[in-house]
Amino acid sequence: MADDLRDGDGTRVVRAGLPAEEPYAPPLPGPALTAHYHLPGDVAGAPYAYGRDANPTWTALERAVAELEAPGDPAATATVFASGMAAISAVLLSRVGPGDAVVLPSDGYNLLASVGERLRGWGVEVRTAPTAGDAQLGVLDGAALLWLETPSNPGLDVCDIRRLADAAHERGALVAVDNTLATPLGQRPLALGADYAVASGTKALTGHGDVLLGYVVCRDEELAEPVRLWRKTVGAIPGPMESWLAHRSLATLELRTARQAANALAVAEALREHPGVSDVRHPGLPDDPAHEAAARQMRRFGCVVSFTLPDKGFAERFLAALRLVGEATSFGGVRSTAERRGRWGGDAVPEGFVRLSVGVEDAADLVADVRAALERATG
């Protein structure tokens, strides 16, 4: 259904991508569990020909995601994938080739480094720069694609999307923005000049920790077609059940992300009070290094808080002492989770660095749990 810009976020998310109402029909049709379709005659123009190409359940979810990333823009199209990394790979591997240059964040999601190594092996020049301070400006000349991740994961730095997109376009480069942490309700990269909005729907978009999913949204069919072809060629398709679960979960996106953002700010403020905690980061903190830039382009500041504890042992004692916060990777779920990021070895962070994903529990309970765990870890 067409997006109505008069409606607020809470109204739009519960109706995004739904079909026209029909008597006695479910508002959100169930998953289309099929590998093939009845396909008589000429296949040209057939909306559904084979299960690797398209699925009605994907179509509904893609319509919904496009409505959220680009409200009111009928030209926006989404392509959903089996995971966030599949979505990231689809853009990077379909847009750059031997002899091209691509700019990646040096502090982005750690698997970007693996993709960068693969690109180098194919003859692509891979340049990196940190997110803070719009440092990518210094390495843009001659690049074919600029990849931004803002806020960055796990450090939570922010760059100016509009400024960087304008600079990249002046130099003939395309711009992709990883919008995973912000979600479409927190930030709209396409409205800020990006060519692609990319995200892992595994995180806050679906929010329940039970679905792996990714998506790419763009406004230009010439940009969308190579991404869809990449999905078809490598088979990086989402299951219909996962797609249906994701669409169902969108209805609570506004409620979940608003609660998480408020809770995250409360937890960040509490963490700063403890003498054993340093470098607390959350874009919503008024004196956070990223706050000024975030306030210009974000509508809410996300669910992730990062901070550093004195050492590895302290961090592990803290995590073990938490009652309401599970020790797990990923972020964006309704249940709070945390982990010591150094255990993966892919992020340039101290041994005591913790990434905390704040859920929808009562803020007072989370704050009390964090404070108690800090005291037990200290003792």
Q: Helix content range of the residues, please?
A: 25-40%
Give the termini separation: 57 Å
Q: Give Rg in angstroms.
A: 21 Å
If you average the pLDDT, what whole number results?
Answer: 96
Regions with pLDDT < 50 over 5+ consecutive residues?
none
Q: What's the level 1 CATH class of the largest domain? A: Alpha Beta
Give me the CATH fold name of the largest domain: Aspartate Aminotransferase, domain 2
Q: Biggest sheet: strands side by side, in what order?
A: 1-7-6-5-4-2-3
Helical segment count? 11
Question: What class, by secondary structure content?
Answer: alpha/beta
Proportion of residues in β-strands: 5-15%
Give the strand tally: 12
CATH architecture of the largest domain: 3-Layer(aba) Sandwich
Describe the main β-sheet briefly: 7 strands, mixed
At the fourth level of CATH, the homologous superfamily of the largest domain is Type I PLP-dependent aspartate aminotransferase-like (Major domain)
List the helices and strands in order. HHEHEHEEHEEEHHHEHEHEEEH
Number of domains: 2
Shape from CA axes? globular
